[in-house]
Design brief:
The protein is an alpha+beta fold. It contains 3 helices and 23 strands. Strand 13 and strand 14 form a beta hairpin.
């Protein structure tokens, strides 16, 4: 009986010793490290955007009149200078006639005063025939009548130009996207009839894709960068465009920069107002430190990587940059060739010895 108890006691001691040895082996397991290197990381940003017309204008009547004839309707494709509608204003025709009459009357007065001045000048060639004051008065009368003639000409041109506005033409090529008038309707720059535009003209063959780029990523976007996007109407089709305009300032509320991308829409499949899912490439401009995401620790004490130097662990505070393919761009007081822990955690305490290290099998690019 005593021998059996002794054997059991020895067996338990052996098992406890084996467990302690296993724990010691586990505690002494080497820490995987890798050499820090510089590289370039290409990532992308997914943001929503909105397609808007490259040019979109409301067309109003310039003078008070009535619509006499319409030549276009909603959906009509028009070219620059094309006649959209003709209006009529009988009182404007009367104004033109009155201005023309005043012009002819002033022309006659000027012809008479000029002829009188010429006669006085000829008579003044005979010494003592004409007083100097008479010559000066004739010259002043001629100049005055000439000034009145120029004023009459300007008035006539003004009224004539106003009559040209009765022909309403397209300022550029596009599509009539809205019509708010009919034949016989009263239109004008003020009063009833001017609350809504006659037409809304939209350019569709070229669109603007408006995107708000967050402050963090504005440094990665440049003019002429190509971006791609999709819309819900054509989920399987990818469209492209180039960055053409950048606001150069951040929106005070959104803390983002307005970026406009020119999109060629020759087939007019895309429509102004569509919401797009935009992919903006974000390549790094210069080589920076690139590490696996597992090497970065996010804790309550901050964001850091663990450097092994002199056999001890050192927590190095960093700032994160772009992320892509399980890799991340970091910035901090680091040097190329530093040995960083591949799978970092707070369990590797700052300042404590790291007894064993092992270089990671997979090279870190």
């Amino acid at each position: 009986m005593i021998s059996i108890l002794t054997g059991c006691h020895q067996s338990e001691e052996k098992e406890e010793g084996a467990e302690e040895e296993t724990e010691m082996v586990q505690e002494a397991a080497p820490v995987e490290v890798f050499a820090l290197k510089k590289g370039k990381l290409s990532s992308s940003l997914q943001v929503p955007g909105e397609l808007v017309a490259f040019r979109d204008v409301d067309i109003y009547a310039r003078v008070s009149s009535y619509i006499k004839r319409l030549y276009v309707d909603v959906g009509s494709e028009v070219s620059e200078g094309q006649l959209l509608a003709v209006a009529e204003a009988p009182e404007l025709n009367a104004q033109v006639s009155a201005a023309e009459s005043r012009l002819k009357s002033q022309e006659a007065l000027y012809i008479a005063s000029k002829a009188n001045y010429d006669r006085v000048v000829d008579a003044a060639k005979t010494q003592g025939a004409i007083a100097q004051t008479t010559l000066e008065q004739a010259l002043a009368k001629k100049n005055s009548d000439y000034a009145q003639l120029e004023a009459a000409r300007a008035s006539f041109r003004e009224v004539s130009d106003m009559r040209k506005y009765l022909e309403i033409r397209a300022p550029f090529g596009g599509i009539i996207s809205l019509r708010n008038t009919s034949t016989g309707a009263y239109v004008g720059p003020a009063g009833k009839g001017s609350e809504l535009p006659l037409f809304v003209l939209t350019e569709q063959k070229r669109l603007r894709l408006v995107v708000s780029v967050p402050e963090t990523y504005t440094g990665y976007v440049d003019a002429n960068d190509e971006v791609s996007f999709t819309v819900r109407t054509f989920p399987d089709r990818k469209f492209t465009g180039k960055v053409k305009r950048m606001a150069g300032a951040l929106d005070k509320k959104l803390r983002s920069e307005r970026v406009e991308v020119d999109v060629i829409n020759a087939d007019r499949k895309l429509l102004p107002g569509m919401v797009a899912e935009v992919t903006i490439p974000l390549p790094t401009r210069t080589a920076t430190f690139i590490v696996p995401k597992t090497a970065v620790v996010n804790s309550t004490s901050g964001i850091f990587v663990i450097r092994v130097a002199g056999g001890k662990a050192e927590w190095v505070p960093i700032e994160k940059g772009l992320e892509a393919d399980e890799k991340i761009e970091i910035f901090g007081k680091l040097n190329e060739g530093d040995q960083l822990v591949l799978t970092a955690s707070e369990e590797v305490r700052n300042g404590l010895p790291v007894p064993q290290v092992k270089t990671a099998d997979t090279a870190i690019q």
